[in-house]
Amino acid sequence: MAQRMGPWGRRPAPDAARAGGAIAGRAGGETDAAGAGGETDAAQAGPPPSHYPCGACGAMLGYQPGAEELLCAFCGATTRIAQADALASAAAVAERDLSAALRAGGATADLETTEVVRCEACGARVTFEAGVHAETCPFCASPIVGETSPDRHVKPQAVLPFAIDAKQAGAAVTRWLGGLWFAPSGLSRQARTGALSGVYTPYWTFDAQAEAAYSGERGDAYTVTVRGRDGKPQSVTRIRWRPARGRVSRAFDDVLTVGSTSLPREDAEALAPWDLSDLRPYDRDWLAGFRAEAYTVDLAQAWGHAREAMERTMAADARRAIGGDMQRLHRLDMRLEGETFKHLLLPVWIGAYRWRGAVYRVLVNGRTGAVRGSRPWSVWKIALAVLAALALAAAAALLALAADGRLPG
């Protein structure tokens, strides 16, 4: 008789490992506070802690997007994820002092060790299921063959669980593809049939109170009447410039920057807005059945990106304060106080497709279904469109000539 297999080809765990509906086998990677001392033994810890056997049949449980439970795809049993109380939730997502963390090299934050595999093609570091040594990278579609290795990093404070499943994300991609002009038909077919990978992607958020002194010029438009070359009067718009200086201030809250170099930063950050009010304290139950990427942009690098974004915003504020029809901004001296940060995992559905040697990605916000992606252009479709436009123009010209009776007999 054939042996019963779990949904991913695994045999259910022995009866001794079952726990009557409770989550069993949650030992795994290790989390500790920085400075607690000693190396972790995560390399010998067994499966990553986000892979749990079903208490009813032993197959692997997975988080059910949009719910607060783990689902066994083999027998349908569900296990509710324990919810933290309000006080614990508030403490988990509290802001951390940025200056202290930067001085200590991040050592003031809690650390954790997880088992990850590194993609040699794009540099992504992602968690794989225990015992899996060969798979496809969700970020660049390159084959990954190798052993997992322990990765020690700042522990995420909070996670935003997936709210849409793979089917809903695929429907969002199909709608997005339907609006693309001049994309190769082959790529569209491949993208529609390709699988999406659910990945918890690392992000950093930053808060700060900003104040900036600026100096520049305000330009006000006025109109004068001059004589043209033909001697006729005509109106000309000119700009009257005058010095301007002042101060602007702003409270920045949750300035997001992606903690991954395996995704284009402009694409990953364009998935916003995120409903960060629904953040949950970090618990690997939310990660069950999904992959999670370890950050490759550390705290100092992420703060540099966030500070640049703050400076751009303050410059825009200064231009608005200068007013007028045009502005020249000569100097902006920004000062920040009370800088804080959080480290989060946000849900992203990722599809990576190879087309004629190049990698194209499509990203889907795992909460809202917003899509952002890259695509090639079909030279043949563009050429046919140009020819069609020329043919229409020629037909219109012939019709105009026929209406005027100027067509040759």
From TrEMBL:
Entry superkingdom: Bacteria
UniProt KW Transmembrane helix keyword: yes
Residues that span the membrane, as ranges: 382-403
Ranges of compositional bias, category Low complexity: 1-21, 29-45
Keywords tagged on the record: Membrane, Transmembrane, Transmembrane helix
Residue segments, region Disordered: 1-47
Entry-linked PANTHER family: FLOTILLIN BAND_7_5 DOMAIN PROTEIN (PTHR37826), J DOMAIN-CONTAINING PROTEIN (PTHR37826:SF3)
Protein name per its UniProtKB record: Zinc finger domain-containing protein, LSD1 subclass
Organism: Rubrimonas cliftonensis
